[in-house]
Amino acid sequence: MLAASAPVVRTDLPLGPPIRGKVRDCYRFASPAHGDTMLIVSTDRISAFDWILPTPIPDKGKVLTAISAFWFDLLSRGPEPIAHHLITTDIDAMGLPAQVDREPLRGRTMLVKRAEVIPFECVVRGWLAGSGLAEYRASGTVCGEPLPAGLVAGGRLPAPIFTPATKAESGHDENVSFAVMSERIGAGLADTLRGRSLEVYARGSAHAASRGIVVADTKFEWGRLPDGSVILVDEVLTPDSSRFWPAAAAGSGRVPDSFDKQFVRDWLEGSGWDKSSEPPVLPADVVAMTRGKYLEACRLLTGVNPAGVT
Fold first, then answer.
1. Could you give the C-alpha distances from 191 to 75, 122, 237, 244, in angstroms and in order?
2. Quick check: 73 and 84 in contact, CB under 8 A?
3. pTM
4. End-to-end distance of the chain based on CA atoms, in angstroms?
5. What average pLDDT score do residues 37-45 get?
């Protein structure tokens, strides 16, 4: 196992008040030197069941940044490039003020184009698991979309399906129908997001399959630039936004163990925590196992370890 670096749980940079998500600290640049850009720092915070847990996972933010940067580069190449928000992950090329300590930020920071985020999670499901499996067992549907009878847990769907969800400021995102999405943002934009999300899923799944990983499902976020063009934003095809399975374990009639935080969720489920009070501290072995899963996903998908992890 690679030695862990000191975890980064919170940043307070002299760049104005941050926008803090469950994992990321975001800072807006708005100057002639930077244009309308943002700094996104992926911390080592981990969330589960809508809570930020008290125990970080060392190097997790570096894994998320390395994998996202890999995908943004891969997807921007080829005959049908996908436009995205990433400008650079080189901390020394971001024009940060001299007083900013760059070392804690190295390997976990992206300078990105600032875009108006479209308020829908664009979820693509290719295999039957999670809430989709529970709904299918109850009604034969996934997010209201009818599926053939006889599908098994962890089984491949006849074709990937697009199941949007509203973005929640807190609590769970809410699954909605494509018709609802179209009504709220317009049919043309909804069609664009569905088509591009399915395309990114197909391209990502093909690469992942060549590296021994099944992308069971994932979610994307899209944004619009001032000129109206639609670009891929946030993170993409990471263990936080996706369910990754070892290909050798897929299709066995059960949901395989995954390269993501499912290990943490499973431990919390068995811990006796009521999910309504402050969550418990994670044991050291759970932290180490979770870190190992994230690093293994990065190594398999990208062929390298995250920057600064030796």
1. 20, 11, 21, 26
2. no
3. 0.94
4. 10
5. 97
Residue 102 tokens read as 């760059």
Do residues 56 and 232 make contact, with C-beta atoms less than 8 angstroms apart? no
Instruction: Give me the numbers of helices (H) and strands (E) for the chain, helices first please.
Output: 6, 17
Cα 263 versus chain centre, distance:
16
- Fold assignment, 117-262: D-amino Acid Aminotransferase; Chain A, domain 1 (3.30.470)
Query: What CATH fold (topology level) applies to the domain 19-115+282-302?
Result: Phosphorylase Kinase; domain 1 (3.30.200)
> Model confidence over 250-305: pLDDT tens digits?
999 999 988 888 889 989 999 999 999 999 999 999 999 999 999 999 999 999 98
Identify any residues that bridge with 224 across adjacent strands, giving them in sequence order.
116, 230
Domain boundaries along the sequence of the chain:
19-115+282-302, 117-262
Rg of the chain, C-alpha, whole Å: 19
